[in-house]
Design brief:
Length: 214
């Protein structure tokens, strides 16, 4: 008797499953088709992004290797295009190339390009902190104390590996302005920082010994 009940229950369950597939055949086909479309789109997008990055990479390498004074304007325009593509690797490299080769000398234009890069989505935190530091380094020759600190604040208020670099930049900034007390405070912060760069820490010790020893 129990065996018959089990068989009946199994048949009933199988019938329900069969009816479910029959009644929802259209929706199931649409769902499967939608999933396949999503998978295809994902791989197509990844392929597109890979090809896009390779194209940007090739363009950057050609521009940097072929740069001469005579094609300065062309290189400038093409490097700006790379920056505006907001690629996490080659947009920063394009800006550094522009700065290192004095292709653009306008501080306002350079700072605008820095801001383009800092607004790249999903930028690694430490890469972003490095870019902030480089922006401050670029501005350190002509900016005021308040503006320089404003640029560096995200790094100075973090535990970034670039914090000791930022502190050293501010210390040198004040030392060059003969504001020795402020400079000393920043050098001393480097010495007590847990993750100070060893070379930066050593240079800070030398600076303190040279400039503040009585």
């Amino acid at each position: 008797m129990d065996e018959e009940i089990t068989i009946i229950n199994q048949n009933t369950r199988n019938e329900k499953i069969k009816n479910f597939f029959i009644n929802n055949k259209k929706n199931l086909i649409i769902s499967i088709f939608s999933i396949l479309i999503l998978i295809f789109c994902y791989f197509a997008y990844e392929e597109f992004q890979t090809k896009k990055k390779v194209k940007i990479s090739n363009n950057y390498n050609i521009l940097s290797l072929s740069f001469i004074e005579e094609n300065k304007l062309e290189v400038k325009n093409e490097m700006i295009k790379i920056i505006n593509k907001k690629d996490r690797t080659y947009s920063p490299l394009a800006l550094y190339f522009i700065i290192d080769n004095n292709i653009i000398t306008s501080p306002n234009e350079i700072n605008r390009l820095f801001d383009v890069i800092l607004n790249i989505s999903k930028l690694d935190d430490e890469i972003k902190n490095l870019i902030i530091y480089k922006k401050a380094l670029f501005n350190s020759d002509f900016e005021t104390e308040n503006n320089l600190l404003k640029i560096l604040n995200p790094v100075l208020n973090s535990n970034s590996i670039w914090k000791s670099h930022a502190l050293y930049l501010m210390a040198e900034f004040f030392l060059n302005r003969n504001e020795k007390q402020k400079a000393k405070e920043f050098f001393e912060k480097i010495l007590i920082l847990d993750n100070s760069n060893p070379n930066i820490k050593l240079e800070s010790q030398k600076r303190i010994k040279k400039n503040f020893s009585e």
